[in-house]
Structure formats: structure tokens, C-alpha cells
Amino acid sequence: MSKIELLDRSKKSSFGLNSKLIEEAYQFALESHKSQKRYSGDPYISHPVAVADILLNLKLDTSTIITGLLHDTLEDTLATEHEIKEKFGDEVAVLVNGVTKLSKIETYTENKFQAENFRKLILAMSKDIRVLLVKLADRLHNMRTIQFIPQEKRRHRIASETLEIYAPLAGRLGMHEFKDELEDLSFQILNPSAYSSLSTRIEYLKKDKSNLTDKIKSRIGELLSKNQIGYEIIGREKKLYSVWNKMQNKQIAFRQLSDIFAFRIVTKSIDDCYRILGIIHNRWSAVPGSFKDYISTPKINNYQSIHSTIVGPERQRVELQIRTTEMDVVADKGIAAHWSYKENYNLIDNSSSDPVNVTWLRDLVEILDSGGSSEELMEATKLEMFQDQVFCFTPKGDLIHLPSNSNSIDFAYALHSEIGNRCVGCKINGKPKPLYTKLQNGDEIEILTSKNPSPSETWENIVTTAKAQSSIKRFFKKQEKDEFVTLGMKILQKILKKDADISIAELEGYSKKFNRKNPDDFLISIGKGNIRPRELEKIKSKSRLSFFSRYRKTNSLDKTPLEISDFQPGVAIHFAECCFPLPHENIIGITSEDSGIFIHSNQCNAIDKEYKKEDWISASWKDVDPEQFFSSRIKVSVKNEPGSLGTLATIVGAEKGNITHLNISEKGEDFFDMIFVIDVHDLVHLNKIINVLAEVENVSSVNRFLLDL
Ligand code: MN
């Protein structure tokens, strides 16, 4: 494929490509890859041109074809994303970036395939399926030229990755042409002797039976012509890898497989498909159990066709596929065919017109979103990718597809995780059956539910779908968590002799003290007994003075330098210790029914998050005594060197501040983070101290510390 041909074809294309922009992309790629060469010795540009050509054949849009041309520029040349955005727009830049990310995954997967990378792959895919289409085209051309790679190990790695990951993905997207070619190319690299002996054998048999093939073909043709149906009959080539695979899996002898004659009959309409089927079955007998109607019930990837095996004109077994021209294109090109068939067919926004196969992607994304681990995902994906499907119906007649071996619990979770959690029984085809009953194609399933969720822990072992598994896990994880949180809270309340719930801020302080990530973890640790009651006694005695406890009672208003709107005499005033408000900064009062008014800095993280707006009241400073001290808090990050602490204390002292508490919040090898409570006169005073400390040699950062909620 040369540049001239590509550009020429893009101009002649009937589906409105912007050939001027494609030519610009070609020039850009040419200049970027300038002096680079492929292993084959060809100039590098031959590769992106070939990839773009494959995409052109799939009738994809201008952006995708341009992405094909540019797909290696970010990774291998000096070109930048910014340049691509400038020249070809955001859409192309996003696509090229997506393909580049996928390419980086390859380089990490030297030996065994890592789930984490697979996750990235899936995520990239689900954002825009065109990224994956370009990647598949890229991989296809690389596989077509793989013989030029000198290192055998590398050839093997690429081939097995193709066989395990890319070929099945192409299959799931319904792109069977891609899948078959990727498989056969990989098979040739991974098992050259099996490949060559099979291909020799098949060539030989083809010649041997070519007379018979022609005879069968013309006998069927005559019959159809006599009935005046338009048709095309195509002999089906056996794909080497699929023959090999069948021999491996089913222990079928090669002879058995190669004895079968296979044809595809393509016609105009669905009506004609059924007429052809009727005419043929009327003339030759069908092999029992071989008939499958994927026209009325398409496969999960939208594959449609009628399959039937007959005992044919020459007493041979003849496999037939009967389908329309459109179905034939979809069978070969899959999702890419949908792209070109329907204009404005938007795969980027997940509109309801998605073909069935895109829901597969979304299921995966859902598992990711719900936080399943990547290993779980990998397992789940591998399972589902290689398993066949079973089709069942809801009582309303909706079709639900599941991996084979699924049961009613899988079915319930496929409908909705809530239905799964509340499922207590099922009826299959109207009869009550145990939940673990394996579903059969065509079953109608009615799920019986209870009011409250009550899944069983043993379900996890009997379900097949990843969705059911992760929903069940999530349910029990959450339940366990809730139980321990409640228990932990009860223990803590008992020890602190408090009846009401303990405030979040207080818990926040305790969880820091006990090195727990958050209050929930802290309570779970108590609930599980990892923090013992005796350890909790420590906070009990000091709890009122606790470093992080939020509130400190101040004097009554007459001695407090504050003006508060609608103030009622006798109401207690507190300075909030989440933020330690200081004179000269804007403040907000928050009323509470039983504890008075709390004064917060308007910088405080708590006010927005924890209090309703209607509890806010205006407050301001008034007649502050310049000699009065107020507590404030700063966080300092210091190099871990002898004397650091002393220097800081001296400087704060020299600035007339007074350190009253000190807490090392984090200690690394080189640095530690400290939180000081310093008494200062006002915000100006505090800022001055912060500025001076920031200049100290071993200090890497100083900030006012507001409790982060
Ligand atoms: Mn490439």
C-alpha cells in the first residue's frame, strides 16, 4: 500500500472522508518518522500507511484514519500531543494518545500478562472504541510483518499476547476477519511445525476433493435457481488455528474435521434466508441437533446467521451458513461494520442504541468502578472472554445473556445488584427450582425476592459471572464493616462514658492518634479488638484537652472580643479547634442547640461540610486587646537533622510566639512533619512567624494548619 493509493482511495471513498486532512496527516507522519526504518528495511512510514489502509477498508471515519497515520508519532518521534491537537483537533489528539497508552502496555508485559495493564487497556477501550480499532489494525499489520523481527523471544511474546488478548478482543467485537487472521499469524509463530503440517494437509485435501466441492456447490445452486432466489454461494476455507483448536479441545481427529464441506449462502433478505433453508431441508435431510437460528436470536456480538448441517448431494456432511449480505459484513467486520452502516452512530456516548457487545465493555467498567481488584477482574474477564453464552428470558420476554454455567443467582444479579441481593428463590419455565440450577438456552426465569437483602455467603462459590461475584463480595464487606463500626462506637462510648455519638472531629483526632486512616478504620479497629480498651483509657483522661478535640470554651461574651449578631446573654462561646480562628481574619459563628455558639475561621474546612447554612450567624472581631494571646496551629515539614527542632523553637520564641503543644504527625527517613500549637496575638503575627520559619534552611514547608475533614 503506497501513499498515493491510500490518498487516492480516501478521495474516492463514498463515505465522505476529509482527504485533504488525511494528506496533511500523512505529511506530518512522514516528516516525524523521517529517517526511521522498519525491521524489514522499509521506511517507517509504510507501517502507519498500512494501518490507515486497514482502517479505510473498515470504512471508518476521518479521525480514525488520521489516528492510524499518527499512531506511532507520540511514542517514537519528537512530535507532541500539543502539535497534533493544533493541526488535527482535540478528537484526533485524544485518540492518538489512547493508542499510545495501549502501546506502552505492551512494553511492560514482558513475561506474563499483568492484570493491571489489562485494566488500563479496557479503560482506554471503553472511553472510545476507536482507540481499540486502531490498536487492532496496528497489531494486525505488525503481525503481518512479524517475521522481520530478529529476536525469537520477542516474536513469541508478541504472538502469544496477540493470541491471548487481541484476537479474543477482536472476536468479542465481532471482527472475525481480524480474529481469524490474528490467530493464524500467531499460531504460525508459536507452533510452526503444527502450522505447516496442518496447512500442507489441508492444501492436499482441498485438491483431492475439489471435484466434489464443485459438484455440491452446483447442485445446491441449481436447486436455488430453480426456485428463483438470488444467492451467492461461497466455499468456506478452514482456518488453521480453529482446526487446531478443535483438535485440541474436542480430541477430534483431523480426518473428521477435514471431511466436512462448508459453504456460506448469502442472499438479499431475511425472508430469502428462511426460504433457502426450507428448500434445502426439503431436499436433503438435516443432521439432528445441528440447526441454529442466530437470525431470530443473535449472538452476544450481534452475529446473525442460520447454521445447519445436512447430509448433502453426494452423501457428504455439508455445513451451511445462510445469511443476508448485511449480516455477512457484520459477521466479518463486527462493530466496525456498525460504524459504517449507520451514520452518526455514536459509540462514544453510551447511548441506548449500543449494539449488544458494547454492554460487555460496560459490564467490565462497572466492575472497575465498584473497586474490584484488578486480579479479580483479570480472572473474571478471562473466564468470560473464553466461555460461551447462554440466553435466557425474563417473564416479560427480555433477553439476558450470561456465560454458560450461570444459574438463577447470576441471572438475578444481571438484572440488578439489588434484585440479586434480595433474591430468595426462582421459577424456571414456571416451575420452582433450586437457585443453583444451571440455566439452559431459552429458559424463562422468574426471580422471587424478599423485602430485605439476604444473600448467602456461599453464593460466592456457586455463581459464574464476575458481576454476581463482586456484588456479593461487596455486600458482605459492607455488612462486616458496618457491624464493626457500630460495635467500635459502642465500646468507645462506654469507655468515654458518653451517651450520644462522638463527633466526627473528635474521632478524627483519635484516629490520627492511633495511626488509623479515618474514623471508620479507628472504630473498626476497636470493634475487632485491635485497639484494646486499656489503650483507649489513655484518651479518656485527656479527652477534654485532647490535641485535636475541636472546641475550647472561652470566656463569656463580656470578656470576649467578639461581636455576634442576635446574641443572647448567657450563651456559651467557643473557639473551634478545627481551625483556631484569629483576630484580623473573617469569622463565622455557628449555633448549636445545646452547646452555644462556635466561632470558626471562614477558611475552616468544617463549616461548608458539616453545618447547615441556616445555622450560620455573622460574627466579627471587636476591641481586641493587642496583648492577648490566641491559639493557632501550623504544620512544618523539617529535615530530619539534629538541632532542627531547637532552631524552630528559638525562632518562634524570638518572634514572641509561644509553642504550647507539639505533635509529630508523620515521620519519614529524611523529613518529619510537625504540628505546633502556637499562641499568637493575631493573624498578622502568625503570618510573620510562618514567613520567618519558611526561610530556615532545613524547613521545606510551613503552613497554617486547618483540620482537614
Ligand atoms: Mn504501530
Task: Describe the protein's architecture and organization.
The chain is of the alpha+beta class and 709 residues long. It folds into six domains: 3-191, Hypothetical protein af1432 (Orthogonal Bundle); 195-335, 2-Layer Sandwich (Beta Polymerase, domain 2), CATH 3.30.460.10; 359-470, Roll (Ubiquitin-like (UB roll)), CATH 3.10.20; 475-540, no CATH class; 551-621, no CATH class; 630-704, ACT domain (Alpha-Beta Plaits, 2-Layer Sandwich). Helix content is 51%, strand content 16%. The protein contains 28 helices and 20 strands. The strands form five sheets. Strands 11-13-15-14-16-12 form a six-stranded mixed β-sheet, with no helix packed on it. A five-stranded mixed β-sheet has the order 1-2-5-4-3. Helix 22 crosses helix 24 (519-528). The longest helix has 35 residues, at 192-226. The radius of gyration is 35 Å and the shape is elongated. 32% of the residues are buried. The structure holds manganese (II) ion (MN). Manganese (II) ion binds at residues 47, 71-72, 138.
